[in-house]
């Protein structure tokens, strides 16, 4: 099978390649094509992958290209993991919002809307090229904001595009570890949108064990979400929230902490050093990547953990199997018919009552050789449903704004977001993003 990775010069590509090297099933990926807009980044990642293959003792050919059509033609699977505007764009997404006293974050709040606005047109172009040149390919979308981008690409690719995120499975693994249970045997009642969901139940041997976890102070302390949200709040909710909900439930604290330094700002120097060092010392490429990856994983959501004294990241989080594990399991389920239940970003249909049928939601799905089937979820009480409905409306307004290149709808998307407190601030956000980020301006100047 031919696998194409868009954003192939990205830092996490070696995770995927490592997982492919270890894949022994049949059919499996026999050819990898990396596409990126930056030849320098492609070259650096190529060095890392070459060392990985040598260490593993397997030859899995890698080709690089900056030509999108050349990359996708005849692909069986396309992983889309692009970052339109690069890390500079992310940093501006975050900083502009903070300048207005609002949350400055990659995917949540105004930063996520700005990121979505400039990413949708590029993602649509990708979808069109895949539809033309690899009509039978499956597209696995990692590109953030993942729910919104998957929903936009569905307009061209329909059920052939599915979005993934590592945060729900991370939460479930942590919950299971705290209870001493095997996550592979648990059935999670996870429901919501990407980066906006809750674990509302956890069935094990036919019984819901989530109430046991919520009632147990000691066990909750072992789950990062238990520590950051606090036992009292998760009991009040009756659910374990996705870690990204910290930005809603503890918005002031997040704004204060991120205002000192955003995640994008923290990563800027590290990222530059990584690409430079690898290109200058290709023989050390894998060691440099491994060191940088440890630093990056350790510091992930460090602000949230600092505010709440939640301590270091859990070992279960740092263990392998995040994005690459999900992507590989999904590919295996589709290509080999190895059935699997996984939490994916898919068309709602009737699975989550109260959300539009065409909305992309993040819920458990059954995946087989025949395709992906979303599983029905328990109706959401108002304290959850109100938020997902509002944020889904914002996502859909953002998609519409980007597709029609409408400043008025873009302002509406900002203004309707629950973390934006004034329509006049929404107007200023739009103007500031337009002035600060060339790829954002390009959407509306076209
Ligand atoms: C998690 C989320 C991704 C997000 C990433 C950011 O993996 O699920 O959606 O992009 O974290 O990590 P970073 O190290 O770039 O801050
Ligand atoms: Mn994610």
UniProtKB/TrEMBL annotation:
Domain of life assignment: Bacteria
Pfam family, one: Glyco_hydro_4
Record flagged with keyword NAD: yes
Alphabetized InterPro entries for the sequence: GlycHydrolase_4_CS (IPR019802), Glyco_hydro_4 (IPR001088), Glyco_hydro_4_C (IPR022616), Lactate_DH/Glyco_Ohase_4_C (IPR015955), NAD(P)-bd_dom_sf (IPR036291)
Transmembrane helix in keyword set: no
Domain Glycosyl hydrolase family 4 C-terminal, residue spans: 190-420
Alphabetically ordered keywords of this record: Glycosidase, Hydrolase, Manganese, Metal-binding, NAD
Cofactor detail note: Binds 1 NAD(+) per subunit.
Cofactor dependence: NAD(+)
Family, per entry: Belongs to the glycosyl hydrolase 4 family.
Designated name of the protein: 6-phospho-beta-glucosidase
Organism in which the protein naturally occurs: Nonomuraea longicatena
């Amino acid at each position: 099978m031919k696998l194409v990775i868009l954003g192939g010069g990205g830092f996490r590509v070696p995770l995927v390649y490592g997982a492919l090297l270890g894949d022994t099933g049949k059919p499996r990926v026999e050819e990898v094509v990396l596409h990126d807009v930056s030849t320098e980044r492609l070259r650096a990642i190529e060095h890392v992958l070459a060392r990985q293959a040598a260490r593993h003792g397997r030859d899995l050919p890698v080709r690089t290209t900056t030509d999108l059509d050349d990359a996708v033609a005849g692909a069986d699977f396309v992983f889309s993991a692009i970052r339109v505007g690069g890390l500079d764009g992310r940093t501006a997404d975050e900083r502009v919002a903070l300048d207005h006293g609002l949350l400055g974050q990659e995917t949540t709040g105004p930063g996520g809307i700005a990121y979505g606005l400039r990413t949708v047109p590029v993602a649509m172009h990708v979808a069109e090229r895949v539809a033309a040149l690899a009509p039978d390919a499956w597209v696995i979308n990692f590109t953030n904001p993942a729910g919104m981008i998957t929903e936009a690409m569905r307009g061209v690719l329909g059920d052939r595009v599915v979005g993934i995120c590592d945060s729900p499975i991370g939460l479930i693994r942590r919950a299971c570890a705290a209870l001493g249970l095997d996550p592979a045997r648990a059935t999670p009642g996870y429901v919501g949108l990407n980066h906006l969901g809750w674990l509302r139940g956890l069935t094990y041997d036919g019984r819901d064990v989530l109430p046991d976890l919520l009632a147990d102070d000691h066990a909750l302390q072992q789950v990062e979400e238990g520590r950051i949200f606090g036992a009292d709040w998760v009991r009040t909710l009756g659910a374990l929230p996705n870690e990204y909900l910290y930005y809603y439930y503890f918005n002031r604290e997040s704004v204060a902490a991120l205002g000192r330094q955003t995640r994008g700002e923290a990563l800027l120097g590290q990222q530059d050093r990584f690409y430079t060092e690898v290109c200058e010392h290709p023989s050390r490429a894998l060691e440099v990547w491994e060191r940088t990856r440890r630093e990056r994983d350790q510091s992930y959501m460090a602000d949230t953990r600092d505010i709440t004294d939640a301590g270091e990241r859990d070992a279960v989080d740092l263990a392998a199997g995040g994005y690459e594990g999900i992507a590989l399991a999904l590919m295996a389920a589709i290509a080999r018919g190895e059935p699997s239940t996984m939490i994916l970003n898919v068309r709602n249909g009737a699975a989550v009552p109260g959300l539009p049928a065409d909305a992309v939601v993040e819920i458990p799905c059954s995946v087989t050789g025949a395709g992906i089937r979303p599983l029905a979820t328990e109706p959401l009480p108002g304290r959850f449903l109100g938020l997902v409905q509002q944020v889904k409306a914002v996502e859909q307004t953002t998609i519409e704004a980007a597709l029609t290149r409408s400043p008025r709808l873009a302002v509406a998307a900002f203004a309707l977001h629950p973390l934006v407190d004034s329509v006049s601030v929404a107007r200023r956000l739009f103007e500031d993003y337009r002035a600060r980020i060339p790829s954002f301006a390009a959407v509306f100047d076209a």
